[in-house]
Amino acid sequence: MNKIILLLIFLLPIVGSCQNESFDINKKSFSDYIEKEKEFVGGRILDSDYSTTYDELALTSYIRSDNSVPNVDLIVRYLYFKKDSLIKEIRNEWDIANHNQKLDNKKDVKFRTDLVKFYEMLEQSLRRNYGNGTTSGDIPKNINDRDTYSKEIQWTLENTIVKLNIMMSNIHDEQKKIFPTHKIYLSYLAINLENKLDFKNSELIKRNRKAIPNIENPIIGSQEPTFPGCENSNDKISCMNNKIRDLVIKRVGENNMQIKNDTLKVGYLVQIDGKIKAQISSIKSSNKALEKIGHETVKNLPIMIPSYSEKMKQNVTYGNSFFIIIKNNRVANYE
Prior knowledge:
Blueprint: H1 3-8, H2 30-37, E1 42-45, E2 50-52, E3 57-69, E4 72-81, E5 87-95, H3 109-130, E6 134-138, E7 149-156, E8 160-169, E9 181-190, E10 205-207, H4 213-216, H5 236-254, E11 261-270, E12 276-278, H6 288-299, E13 307-309, E14 314-316, E15 318-327, E16 330-331
Helix pairs in contact: 5-6
């Protein structure tokens, strides 16, 4: 099998070209899939825009670092029954809207061409394993940045419906809630499940896209976030790190701590609105009292000017981590 397809269906049995071969995504448990996700670069994500259309179902999503499409990582969504964790659908998404949430997000011919090439690679691999399938829509050889294109192929197997589709549109109509769309979905839908609702052809996952102020009307600043007082600094990250070092030392003094020689690792995210989210596992020290100081300091950091991506024309999340070396209650590693 193609290496890309192996990456996508890492726990699924390899079948031949016959569409009537047994193929069941529930031959492995939901916990098996989740355990396997830990081997990829990425992790679980929380998408407030996404939800299930039925109360019986739950949704868990993971991101995997992926270079198949420029600036688009793979999102894998597991849709399963709450009662027993039996999987209903596994959906693999390469969707620009998952990564650049700006509603008016039009793409050029170069991006569209790259997306089509990747789709064709997936199509060839899937056809080799499941046969020709049933096709609707078409992607012409020559594409432009004006027209809308879509294509879907469906393979109906004994226990699974496999769907591969691509959609590319630059249409934006705010009143009709129509936004530019560029995405590839590869779905594995379980069928013939005993004692389970069929849901027929209903859409099982819904998305409520909404304008996000710091994305639709971004704060245009630098590529790096800006800590208060670092606006005129030539190295905003070093300035920010040093400001946080000062805040840690201040708290050490306020708590009457005596530190002869210790190191504190500090990690956090500057979110698109400039608020700080602590990375709990990245705030560490062998001195637990100092580690507690680290948590308190990050928790109380001021709102910053968020990072701005010139390429994406929006504010983006910025992760930062660094070490603070303290000797005799003084910072020993200012930048």
